[in-house]
Specification:
- The chain is of the alpha+beta class.
- It folds into three domains: 87 residues, no CATH class; 42 residues, no CATH class; 96 residues, Arylsulfatase, C-terminal domain (2-Layer Sandwich), CATH 3.30.1120.10.
- The chain has seven helices and eleven strands.
- The strands form four sheets. A four-stranded antiparallel beta sheet has the order 8-9-10-11. A three-stranded antiparallel beta sheet has the order 2-1-3, with no helix packed on it.
- It is globular, with a radius of gyration of 21 Å.
- 21% of the residues are buried.
Length: 231
């Protein structure tokens, strides 16, 4: 069985049979850039070409900056070493499932006021939190020229794109997202495909919900994309 790894310094992906060097406990380094260690991926994940890499310790403090980190933050490595990752990156989670807050709470670290989101620890302790019924996501594709925002409910998923096509999926009927309910004609405003007329009401309602969540997070891109559909 091979294990997928990625270098946090250069983003190079490899598949290895062993996690360590030979029979030692020394982690494998990057054969491409020479970085001291690799991260093992829990899933077969391919980062976007412009993804930025940061290395953190067990308490969420940045201990290393890798590929695209300067382009993403405008900060040199010496400016961020030792700072909390959520503060440097301004991490905020619209759906409330905040992995940073959860990890901090389990580790006994106070959750700062600026960390948007809430811990899911109460769920594991038998106190189910009130979940959102709609989730706001910035989606990433292999096309660096696509800018996308998505809203998802239990039944529907709407993806709005700048530079690419919109998409609509009926998740209860099509959980594998095989049938895009946006047509391929380009007669709508801005050259975007027009949605199947039978789903016009669903598209507008989802676009309104996406806009409301974008306003909550102060995301002008999401607001702009939603307005392009609601106009």
């Amino acid at each position: 069985m091979t294990h997928p790894f990625i270098c946090p310094n250069c983003g190079h992906r490899t598949s290895e049979l062993d996690r360590n060097i030979g029979f030692t406990r020394q982690p494998k380094g990057c054969a491409k850039c020479g970085f001291a260690f690799l991260f093992e991926l829990l899933d077969d994940y391919y980062p976007a070409p412009d993804a930025a890499f940061f290395v953190c310790d067990g308490e969420g403090r940045i201990v290393g900056c890798g590929k695209n980190s300067f382009a993403f933050t405008g900060l040199e490595e010496e400016d961020v070493i030792g700072q909390r990752v959520e503060q440097v990156l301004g991490l905020r989670f619209a759906n409330g499932d905040d992995p940073v807050a959860t990890v901090l709470e389990w580790g006994g670290v106070p959750i700062p006021a600026y960390a948007h989101g809430r811990s899911v620890r109460p769920w594991f302790e038998g106190h189910a939190p009130a979940w959102r019924d709609a989730y706001y996501v910035e989606t990433v594709t292999d096309r660096s020229d696509y800018v996308q925002r998505c809203v998802r409910t239990d039944e529907w998923k709407l993806i709005l794109s700048r530079g690419g096509p919109h998409a609509l999926y009926h998740l209860t009927a099509d959980p594998e997202e095989q049938l895009d309910l946006y047509q391929t004609r380009g007669d709508a405003q801005g050259g975007q495909p027009g949605h199947v007329p039978g789903y016009a009401a669903e598209v507008r309602e989802l676009a309104r919900r996406l806009r409301a969540l974008a306003c909550e997070l102060d995301d002008p891109t999401g607001i702009e994309l939603a307005d392009s559909v609601l106009a």
